[in-house]
Amino acid sequence: MAERKIGFLHTGTKASFQEHYAAFVHRLDEFVEPDEIEIVERWAGDDPSKSLEQHAKALANENIDVLVSAGGPPAAKAAKKATARNKVPVIFTSVTDPVGLGLVQSLDNPRGNLTGIAGMTSELDVPRLEILCELLAGRKKKPTIGVLNNAYRPGLDGQYKKLEAAARELGAKLVRLDVADLAGIQSAFASIKKAKPVDAILVTADSLFNNLRHDVVKFAGSIPAIYQWREFAEIGGLMSFGSNIIDAYEQAAEYVGHILDGDAPSDLPVSLPDRYELVINLRVAHKNDVTMPASLLCNADFVRNRLRRRRASGSGPSPRKTRRHR
Hints:
Layout: E1 4-10, H1 18-28, E2 37-43, H2 50-60, E3 66-70, H3 73-82, E4 90-95, E5 114-118, H4 125-136, E6 144-150, H5 156-170, E7 173-179, H6 182-194, E8 200-203, H7 207-211, H8 213-220, E9 225-227, H9 230-234, E10 239-242, H10 245-260, E11 277-281, H11 282-287, H12 294-297, E12 300-303
Parallel strand pairs: 1-2, 1-3, 3-4, 4-5, 6-7, 6-8, 8-9, 9-10, 11-12
Antiparallel strand pairs: 10-11
Helix pairs in contact: 1-10, 2-3, 4-5, 6-8
């Protein structure tokens, strides 16, 4: 019988995140024997509202040793609320600005019962815009770029103002597309293909789009688009720029190992990604007659078919085996 219990909360579906979850479990095996732990999973199925909070509350009451919240800020905020009383350790993964969201006091000194991996997500939307403008430089003097946003993302207006300022400097025009669900995403893409033609699309960083990435890529069709994670390019998107999300799930397992070994979340600083990757799907570029400039090609990883994951050293706590709980 397992002696330790781990809660795993995710905003999306297991079908969309099988590889990520497998990476987490595989790395966890380096810290504790599989038969010594039980992982209790709760998947919100892309419903970040009431369903997510209910799952978080249920896990917090499961007598777990640690709770992993994955899939972005909504899961982390739900986990924080659910553990406010019993102070179960929470490890979040790929959360932008955890200090600004009130999850931790600071990156170096989290305090409280939460720590984990801070994702450079929306912070990289301006560089993504720059990459799109570099792509379009030889095709149009003043490109029009559609910007797909989650209407309910915290701090959206401030983030969009930064994009507008960058667009003015780059000589680009933006078309703001705020959506809240799958139907809204489909409608937004339909509108820009008809009434509001654009030269390219920036899909801003958000767990909503990542969870629904197959649909987002399908709706974008032949319009050149840039996304947050390499998983978008691997399933047929043109290109992505960001950190490696698989690395973040592996780092989350390292944090869990430390918690099971007796460390407190306040002892474990929040980590930042230590590498970023521009990923280009050459097959999609060729199919849609998109000429990639040499300046992008020389700095990119390439996807022709789905690539096997490449391990990279994480930026979280150094790996170590936990004590064996016999």
